Amino acid sequence: MKKLSLHWKIIIGMFLGVIWSILSSFFGLSSFTINWISPFGDIFISLLKLIAIPLVLFSVIKGISSISNISLLGRMGFKTLGAYLLTTILSVSIGLCIVNLVKPGAKISLSQRQENNLAYEKWKNGENLTVSSSELNSQNKLSDEKLKKIKNDVDRQKNNSPLQFIVDMVPSNIFESLADNKSMLKIIFFAVFFGITLVLIPEKEASVIIGLVDSFNSVFLKMVDIVMWGAPYFVFALLAGVISKLAGDNPVGVLEIFKGLGIYSLVVLGGLGAMVFLIYPAIMYLFTKKTYSHFFQSIASAQMLAFSTSSSAATLPVTMDCVNKNLGVSTKVSGFVLPIGATVNMDGTSLYQAVAVVFLAQMHMVDLTVSQQLLIVFTATMASIGSAAVPSAGLIMLIIVLDSVGLNPAWISIIFPVDRILDMCRTVVNVTGDATVCSVVESLEN
């Protein structure tokens, strides 16, 4: 029997995880799944995060220190950020086009939308600060504590200076930043600063440190290989646990996870699919001449892992491995481009926000003007810069976008039931976009 590729093993693990969660719901074994199987999925995420931060640190330093010309580094940085910005704007625009064409919010009954609009008017006049009970079944709402925490995070971000994201990039204590998975930008800043300094000092003094960095980088890359050996089993445990926690011992609940808010979900998936299967392959072929099939075969493992973990940061070690070994990108480029992409390039998340905001407006009979939709493009793009590369970070970003066009931030409760599934899909887009831009920068540098 021909040996299966890793990505096929991961797909089988995901499929078996879904099957197991459904069976455990039918036979009342959800508690067993959550207590005895799900923890192995948590261990998998922890292992990937354990590797991600030191791998980013040493790979960026290695990539920067291997560039002897500082002007070359500046040129690469400009190309990287420019490409990420363009793909983000493109993804938001595609999302807006699809949601305005399909109008998923308008598919809801007129009487329901009229009731929703009345609730919106009350909220706008200060009479009602939440969603109406008829807008969403109470079992699907976010808890008051969760809403309050997210609102506090949004308020804090709104009150910051427009340049706060630059301030946040500079760490005051690198050791504290290394202990926080959400401080990826600070770690990248330190690594770039450290790498540039290595280039500027005499080669005799830098060679020892560069050799040590190379050795550390090799060790953590080998750790990736070791962890990925067990990926199919870990992914099985991860997916079985996630679904069991959401549905419990209710088989209908499992089906609802995949059905919920159907048309909205299909619109989001349509936009994400357009990016993954049309836009990125076209960009790849235009700049690198790599074919559609070769591109997907090369990054399939990273895509499957992105889907199961919902974290660009956790997937980063595998993305780097796929890009280096399968797409032929040099470690000099991948070590610089991919860690930045895992933090600032959120194409899938930005597209999802654009669709979600317009969908919520449509279901409340609120017409968004062209200028408001252009504001969505700008806000979603800016909000994606420096957002945490962890599961469901897009919810906080979504509140910022909702607030920018005068809509009720509490409406995130309406789409929350399907957010976890869509989060898995949009992370695939984020990771695919990272790999695409990395390959483009490599081709431009050669």
Q: Briefly, what is this?
A:
By secondary structure, the protein is an all-alpha fold. It is built from 19 helices and no strands.
Which helices and strands, and how do they pair?
Blueprint: H1 6-26, H2 30-65, H3 70-102, H4 110-124, H5 144-158, H6 164-169, H7 174-178, H8 184-200, H9 203-229, H10 231-247, H11 251-259, H12 262-288, H13 292-309, H14 312-325, H15 331-344, H16 347-363, H17 370-383, H18 394-404, H19 412-445
Helix pairs in contact: 1-10, 1-13, 2-8, 2-9, 2-10, 2-14, 2-15, 3-12, 3-15, 3-16, 3-17, 3-19, 5-18, 8-15, 10-11, 12-16, 12-19, 13-14, 13-19, 14-15, 14-19, 15-19, 16-17, 16-18, 16-19, 17-18
Radius of gyration: 22 Å
Q: What CATH first level would be assigned?
A: Mainly Alpha
CATH topological fold name: Proton glutamate symport protein
Which percent bin holds the helix content?
over 70%
Assign the CATH superfamily. Answer: Sodium:dicarboxylate symporter
Mean pLDDT over all positions:
79
Q: Please, what is the oligomeric state?
A: single chain
Strand content: under 5%
Major β-sheet profile: none
Q: In terms of structural class, how would the helical and strand content be classed?
A: mainly alpha
Q: What are the secondary-structure elements, in order, as H or E? A: HHHHHHHHHHHHHHHHHHH
Amino-to-carboxy terminus distance: 40 Å
Instruction: State the CATH architecture.
Output: Orthogonal Bundle
Please mark out the parts with pLDDT under 50 across 5 or more consecutive residues, or reply none.
Answer: 131-141, 388-392
Q: Give the overall silhouette.
A: globular
Number of domains: 1
Secondary structure tally: strands:
0
Number of helices: 19
